[in-house]
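tool_log.txt
---
The assistant was asked to compare two proteins side by side. It first ran the structure predictor on the initial sequence, then on the second. Raw inputs and outputs are pasted verbatim so the downstream comparison step can read them without reformatting.
(1)
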Amino acid sequence: MQAEFLNSDLVKQQASMAGFDRVEEYVVQLIERDRERLAILQGLEEARAGKVRPLEEFDREFRERHSIDMDVDMDSAR
């Protein structure tokens, strides 16, 4: 079932102005963008609440998980 707002001229115009041929594609993109924003906000809230860990700890675990040599400087590897 398709929501009525998808057929509104305003939404069709917004989709077109955003470069989308179909309103459905535009709406999916908006939903994905909102999901990303919510994830960022959640991360910020967790950081404010002190739910963080040292970068060195994360870096060590990340390198181990992805088999990256501990001696490789990630900044110079770019």
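(2)
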Amino acid sequence: MDLKENIIQCFYTIFFIVLVNDISILNCQEYVVRKFKQGKVRGLIDIVHSGKKVEKYFGIPYAKPPIGNRRFEPPEPVDPWGDSILNASELPPACPQPEEGLKYIENYVSRFSKSSEDCLYLNIYVPRNAVHHRIMPVLFFVHGGSYYTGMGAMFDGRALAVEEIVVVTMNYRLGPLGFLEAGDSNFPGNYGMLDQIAALKWVHENIEFFNGDPKRITLDGQSAGGCSVGLLMMSPLTQGMFRHVIMQSGSTLAHWAVTRTNKAPDIYFKAFTSEMGCLSNSTLQIKKCLQRVDGDRIQDLVYTGFGVSSSLSPHFRPVVDGYFLPNTPENLILSGDFDAKSVLIGSTRDEGLMAVKTLSTLCGNNSVPETQRFLTIMHCFKGDLPSIPDIVEKEILINASTALTYVIDCICTN
């Protein structure tokens, strides 16, 4: 066999290997195609470190876009897309949120600035190891951001995926679009939580096509995401879909995590619907009106920071609705009526630093001692601190050099 024949045989051998393994190589970038219940999807193959490879699939839809008549409604399953191959090589848009939320995201994803109501997508990171068909445990991660900022792709799942774990991150509706509620059956709220359940259900039904084990799904979340996975654990709608739970810097027992009782439209509901020009004594008619509002108009209102809380307690958050959350977290914990094999609870390093940094800038300058600035921030958030008698006053007495007038003159009293 001459050199030319050798080269031709080698070429066809490589072509056969690539074809069999659903791999394509374009412009030095490796792609991979996987097939699951809704259709086919093409992702990227990335070399992380030490030569280890990870498959990345960005922007797989798990529900139809929550726009028009689907706004302020539970998510609907996405329709199959036939024989076409969905491109999953670009990050999906974040859900609508204030400008500061997009800046928050940019700290993790450089130069990212996309947001849209069409945002119900998930991302999957799959280890590409020597034993390619091995079934692996799954980590389902819910991002934080006080229920009104953030997106799933802030958490880069590659670092964990190389450790033989399939990692899934997802977006869910935020702020008023995800948690506006009127305390009745017409406008029950919790749309963002129902998004999380829809994504978890999608993972439970499809993750085996990505080498994931649907019987070994761990729910993980940070901050509001930690609260979220705790609520998912307690909800009767998620039973049988997960095995373990990790709550990082967020607890379902936190006073800000859930609205425990709400039997009538509150001031934030009225302010939002009024701003949209949807005024009525019927919450059903208000919902229909909001569903007709132009998407850009709603997104612009959210972008300008409508509903952003000046305290640690978000105005728009999950609520005890009798359906997703049949009772308060405290009562559900006491009942023990939930099925988790294990629960891990902890705190992330530097938790809350973003808020402290912002308030430190507003409440003082570099000439003000650090202790004094810290006590100022504590005073601003006094109503959000644990119910420990005189927690702020005791610290002020211990640090007698702190000028109380400076503390009170902070932005929190302006």
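---
observation on (2): Residues 4 and 95 are 55 Å apart (CA to CA). Residues 6-21, 400-414 have pLDDT under 50 and may be disordered.
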